[in-house]
Amino acid sequence: MTLYEDDRVVALAKPAGVSMATSSKAEKSESRVLARLLDACGEGDTRGELLLVHRLDVGTTGVVLLARDAEAHRALTAAFQNRRVRKTYRALVWGCPRPAEGTLDDPLGRDPKDGRKMRVRAGGK
């Protein structure tokens, strides 16, 4: 589903279960990722050339930005790299977290035991 669109950018609501991973063996794998994403969002491939700005994990729902041209792609990618993009996450947890409610304001980072996973880096480390 399209959340926002203008002449430079498209913002889509990515559903869970859509893989944004590329295969190193697949030719034009980025275009396959875009095709999967557009199809899952009910958008088809009628939008012309689009460039992925960032990715979300397969089990994650959220907003995915697509650039309409190379200049917009460079600017948006730089904004992500320079941490000028504010991201808000909501998580489903199990067990008994302490405190039972509230806000975590710690950065996310790679899990040191499993680099494929992300985890909260308590204390900003």
Lateral arrangement of strands in the main beta sheet:
1-2-4-3
Oligomer: single chain
Mean pLDDT: 83
User: Mind telling me the C-alpha Rg?
Assistant: 16 Å
Number of strands: 6
Q: Spell the H/E element sequence.
A: EEHEEHEE
Structural shape: globular
Low-pLDDT regions: none
Beta-strand content = 15-25%
Helix content: 10-25%
Q: Helix tally?
A: 2
Summing up helix and strand content along with how strands pair, one would put the structural category as: alpha+beta
The main sheet comes to: 4 strands, antiparallel
N- and C-termini, Cα separation: 36 Å
Keywords:
2 helices; globular; 4-stranded antiparallel β-sheet; 125 residues; single chain; 6 strands; alpha+beta; two-stranded antiparallel ribbon
Please sum up the structure shown.
With 125 residues, this protein is of the alpha+beta class. It is built from two helices and six strands.
